[in-house]
Each structure stands twice: as C-alpha cells, then as structure tokens.
Design brief:
This protein has 682 residues and is α+β, with helices and mostly antiparallel strands. It has 13 helices and 33 strands.
Length: 682
C-alpha cells in the first residue's frame, strides 16, 4: 500500500515537471497568456519544501508573463518568487517595475535599491530609482497640452491604439484594434480570428476612418483591400466546420506624405511556427489598398521588425527590431531609401535605445522624433519621449531626450503618438485607468498661446472716458490705434517676444503712457493696463504727497506720488502747470500761506531734480483760502458730505469731531492745474 502511495506521488511530481516544461516552451516562443495560465495551475501543486527552486522558477516566469501582459497579478507572482528564494537578483528589478507600474513609487524605490546593491551600474535600475525620487516634482510641473479620451475610435471590451493620419490633410486615419469586425456600412460581423496565445485577446486588425464636413470621424471600418482573401478564407473555414484558422495580425502603420503608400506591421505564423513580425508595403489605387509586399530590411529573415514610421520626405524609415547586438529588449532603427530598396540600416544608438524596450517611433515633419520607452526614467510602464538632434555637436547620432511628462505619461503604458500634419495636435494611446489593461486612444491639442492687453480708461474721478484712443507701438513692427468702447474699456491682441509702448489720449485730457513686454512667456497671458487721464481744464489733486508735520519737508512716503507726477509731465512735454499746496482751517492764516508756498516749492524742486524744466512749473501756496468743493466721487466716498458742498470752516464746524478731521484732511492737499498746452510747440 505504501509503495502504491509513493508511486502515485512520483507520477504526480513527474506530471507537474512536464507541465512546467510545457509552460516554459510556451514562454520561450512568446505565448505569454497560455504560459501564465499553465504556470498558475502548476504553482499551487509544487511542494515548497521539496521543490522550492522549481516553485520559485514558476513564480518568476509567471510574473514575467503577467508583467508583459500588463496584468496586476505580476506583483504577487514576483512576491512568491522572492519568498521562495529565487536565485537571480533580476526578480527585484522586475518587482520594482511592476510596483512602479501600479503607481506605488515608494515601494518600487525600495526594490530598485535592493537590486542596485548587486548591480550598481544597471541603467534600468538607476532610471527607475531616479524616477521614483523625482515623481513628486514631475507631478507639480504643468503643461499647456490638453488631453481627452477619444469618443470616436474606442470600443467596449477591446483595445485600440497607434492611430496614424493618412497623408498631410489629416482628414483620414488608420488605427490598430481588436474590436468586433464591421463593414463600411457599420454592420457588425462575427470576429472569426481565434484569440492570441500571446495576449489571450482577439488578434489585431487595421481600421480606417474619415472626417465628414462637420469635422467628425465616420465610416469606421476594416481597411479596404487588405482583408479580402483572408476574410473569405476565414468564412470558408467557419462554414465548413473546420473553425477559423487565420492568426494573422496587422497593425502599427504609417503613410507617405501624399497618403498613397502605406507601411504596416504584419505577423502570421506559418505551419504553426511564429516567424515574427515583418513590415509590409502597400499602395492605394481606386480607393483600396493593393497587394502588400514585404519590406526587406535584414538579410536574416528571423529578425523581427515592426512599428514603421516614415519621414516627411519619404526617404527615411524608422522602425523597431530585436536584431542582434542591440542595447537590450527592442531597439529603434532607421534605414534609407535607395531606389526601391531600403539600405544603410542602422541602430539609432545608445542615447535613444536602452536596456529596456524602445518602440512606436513617430517622426514629426519638423524632424523631432517621438517614441515610447520603458528603459529611460519615466512615470512607469511605457512613457512617450521626444528626441531632438543635438546641434551643438557634429554627429548625426547625437540626440537630446526629453520625457513628455503629464498629461501624456502616467504610471501605465503610454505610447503610439501621432500628429496631424505639421501641427502639435494629434492622438496617442494609453491603458491608464483600465482594470483589464485595454488600450485606448486619446486626443491631445496644444492650444494657441494668446497674448492680450486690456483695461479701462477713466478720469481722475473714476468716470469712464468714451472718446479715448489707445495707440500701441511695438518693436515687432506693430503700430495700431484702437478706440475705447463707450464704457472706456479696450482689448488689443499682441505678439510674443515683443516690447510695446502704449499711449492713451482723449480730447480735453492729458496723455498717459505705459510700456510692457511679452518676453519669456510659456503660456497665454492677458496684461491688465488701466489708464487714469487727468483733465486739462480742472485742478487735479495729487494723491500720496506727504510732508513733515508743520513743515514743508517731503516724507519718503511721497516718492510714489512724486514719480507719478514726473511721469505725467514727461508724457505731456508741451504743458506747463501751476503746482499749488493747501492747508486746513487750523492755525494762523499768514503762517499757513507761507507753509503752503514752501511746500509747493519743495515739490517743484523735486521735479526739477528729476529733469523737469523750471519754466514749466509755477509754485503757489494758497493756505486755507481755497477749500475743496465736493464732487460726485467725494460724496460717494463720504456720504455725509453733500455733492457740490464747499468744505469751508462753517460747514466743518457743524460736523462731529471725527467728521471734522476727515474734512480737514481732504483740504490738506497738493494740486496741479494745466496753464498752457503749447510749451515749446511753436
């Protein structure tokens, strides 16, 4: 009986080992979905005491499958591998990466540091550690780009990604999706392709769409001409009872500038053997895509290539490959067109490529390269990067790399960016916020930066001036004149990186001048510039002119008011003014006149020290001879003072003590009034 039990256990152990070997074979050929399922079945049946090394191996490979599939179960799988003493330190790097993918940056950083203890120079671990340290600062940075989920290209329970505009007009698009098939009329058809053993999802196809006159995307359907024979083959297989045999996938495409030539990624196993992805080329005629031909890039046909991107001139092809002697994972390559052949195939170098994966290249018409990478410092998973050639060195392989940041990048996979023509608007792909990892297409726009100057013109009583004119002159060549609205407001659009001078004028008022510049701006901005114009025919009280008590010495608090008067005289070089000082009713009349004269002279002396000609200034001291007559503004500020009321001694003495002091303070003032407007004019 015991012998039978031992034999039974032995057979069971042998069966588990065989199943693990089968899962390993699936893993080796990239059938990650099926391999993960088989590893899961095996893991719980392996004894942690007798087969701990095997249990750790299964857990790690299960984690690898889940990581590649963006499945959150990867975290627990790597935990199990560590718990069972997996011997390779790589488990800490992979564990850190999936934690970062889930946005658990603090925990991820701890695992990166553990791995760096064994491999202190590993770039991926250094990049991950750096990103986890910087993430809070990155999150504070703002962007002008506006991102929103596309309502047109995403379908339920499916993935859609890597859209590409067909030609420069940007009115047609093609994208990769595994949605349920539909014809041009929109009628759904049964998806006859079997699920992928790699992802467990339906295989991918190319769909196209066009913009209608209203700018809306419509006619979303399988790309015409690419699926005719294969669709017929699938339907024949289905109706004959044999089941669908087609496992071909089409996706990630690009187009020539005229939209008539397409390059796309194509993968189809032959006799059950996966030969890897290839790039094919097709030309359009009569509205349909013609028979596709493989693009030969490497002599070794076993090398996988995909994700093509064509330069605007059509003579350079950027693509992804796992060719030998790369930098690790998948690398970006480029090739040049010579007649009908692509030659001078070369790896894009260590500045672009890392030990991780670099994929989904997109070359903007302006020469900027965009790509996705999980090897450079980023938010997690694939991030979108921008690369510009370094013009400071004479080397065509020298690049400056920038992470695009939020809102493009998240802790999940962000990739497959494309631009509408030469603009900075377009689409990209992401699986952010998707519990089942579905890829979705997002739209992004870069709003135009708008620079404005606006404000209101009023008199010194706060009343709007409706007949005012604003003249704007800039060093960018701007010279424009704008009439203020009835309420005294105005608004003028200005340009970036310019310096402007504004002159406000109105009949019966003195001019006012202001300046500003629009240099070093990174976002839209509206400058607020109000103007208060002083009347020519009435005395104007100067605010904020202060003297020492009982003296004529100007206090430091007067500087702002005095500078305003200097500016007014410089803005109006043809006027002369009477500069008068006034006291309240207190004290001796003779003393008050003398005091006010000295105060007026003190202000004039200040103006002269600032370059104002003496001939333009007439100082006068009135003492308490000219009390204020209340206007509408003063009545509004102090309702106890009736409009048109003279603040003479009789009125002031009729008031309570507190209100008397207010009136005395109002009477203590410095004023100017215009005497001439033709100084040195003739």
């Amino acid at each position: 009986m015991c012998a039978m039990i031992v034999l039974s256990v032995g057979l069971s152990s042998c069966s588990i080992k065989q199943r693990v070997k089968k899962a390993d074979r699936m893993y080796a050929i990239g059938e990650y979905y099926d391999a993960a399922d088989l590893y899961k079945q095996c893991y719980s049946r392996i004894s942690p005491q007798k087969e701990r090394a095997m249990k750790a191996h299964v857990a790690f490979n299960q984690g690898e499958c889940y990581r590649i599939l963006n499945n959150s179960r990867a975290v627990n799988a790597y935990k199990n591998a560590i718990r069972n003493k997996y011997q390779d330190s790589i488990v800490y790097l992979r564990y850190a990466q999936v934690l970062q993918y889930q946005g658990k940056y603090k925990e991820a950083d701890q695992q990166y540091l553990i791995y760096l203890q064994s491999y202190p120079t590993d770039y991926q671990a250094q990049a991950g550690h750096y990103a986890c340290q910087q993430i809070n600062e990155w999150k504070k940075q703002t962007s002008r780009y506006k991102v929103s989920l596309s309502k047109d290209f995403n379908a339920k329970r499916s993935s859609s990604f890597a859209p590409q505009f067909i030609g420069e007009d940007a009115d047609a698009i093609m994208f990769t999706t595994n949605r349920q098939a539909s014809g041009a009329s929109g009628n759904r058809k049964k998806n006859l392709k079997r699920p992928s053993p790699v992802t467990g999802a339906q295989l991918f196809s190319l769909y196209s769409a066009r913009k209608n006159a209203a700018g809306e995307w419509e006619d979303i359907a399988l790309a015409e001409g690419l699926y005719g024979d294969e669709q017929e083959e699938q339907e024949n297989d289905s109706t004959s009872g044999g089941g669908a045999k087609n496992t071909a996938e089409l996706g990630v495409c690009c187009f020539s500038a005229d939209g008539r030539t397409m390059y796309f990624t194509y993968s189809k196993p032959v006799n059950g053997q996966d030969l890897g992805a290839k790039i094919y080329r097709s030309s359009r005629a009569s509205g349909e895509w013609g028979e596709a031909q493989e693009v030969k890039l490497f002599a070794d046909s076993s090398i996988t290539v995909g994700h093509p991107s064509l330069s605007a001139s059509g003579d350079t092809l950027y693509f992804v490959s796992d060719a030998p002697n790369g930098f690790g994972g998948k690398d970006l390559y480029m090739a040049e067109l010579d007649g009908e052949e692509w030659v001078n195939v070369q790896n894009m170098g260590a500045q672009i490529n890392s030990a991780g994966d670099e994929m989904y290249p997109c070359i903007h018409p302006n020469g900027t390269l965009y790509f996705a990478s999980n090897g450079h410092p980023g938010y997690g998973g694939l991030d979108i990067f921008m690369a510009q050639q370094d013009t400071t060195v004479h080397d065509s392989t020298a690049w400056l790399i920038f992470n695009m940041g939020a809102p493009f990048n998240s802790n999940n996979d962000d990739f497959g960016i494309t631009f509408a023509g030469n603009s900075q608007n377009g689409f990209f792909s992401s699986n952010r916020g998707q519990k089942k990892g579905y890829d979705q297409i997002y739209e992004f726009v870069l709003p135009e930066m708008v620079f404005l100057v606006e404000g209101k013109l009023t008199d010194n009583q706060g009343e709007p001036i409706s007949n005012a004119t604003i003249r704007l002159v800039g060093d960018d060549g701007t010279n424009t004149k704008v009439q203020a609205r009835r309420d005294g407001t105005y608004k003028i659009k200005v340009n970036k990186d310019a310096r402007y001078i504004m002159l406000a004028t109105a009949r019966g008022y003195l001019n006012a001048r202001e300046g500003f510049n629009t240099h070093n701006l990174t976002d839209s901005k509206t400058y607020q510039q109000d103007f208060i114009l002083s009347p020519v025919s009435k005395p104007v009280t100067m605010d904020n002119i202060f003297y020492e008590f009982g003296k004529w010495d100007l206090t430091p608090a007067s500087e702002e008011g005095l500078q305003s008067l200097v500016k007014l005289l410089n803005d109006n070089p043809n006027i002369t003014i009477e500069l008068s000082a006034h006291t309240d009713m207190k004290g001796d009349s003779v003393f008050n006149v003398r005091l006010s004269e000295k105060r007026a002279e003190a202000v004039c002396n200040y103006l002269i020290s600032k370059g104002i000609e003496r001939e333009r200034l007439t100082p006068v001291g009135y003492g308490k001879q000219k009390p204020v007559t209340a206007d509408k503004a003063l009545h509004t500020q102090y309702p106890f003072i009736p409009q048109e009321q003279v603040l003479d001694e009789a009125f002031i003495l009729s008031l309570p003590t507190e209100q008397q002091e207010i009136c005395n303070q109002i009477n203590r003032r410095t004023e100017f009034k215009v005497l001439r407007t033709t100084y040195k004019l003739y």
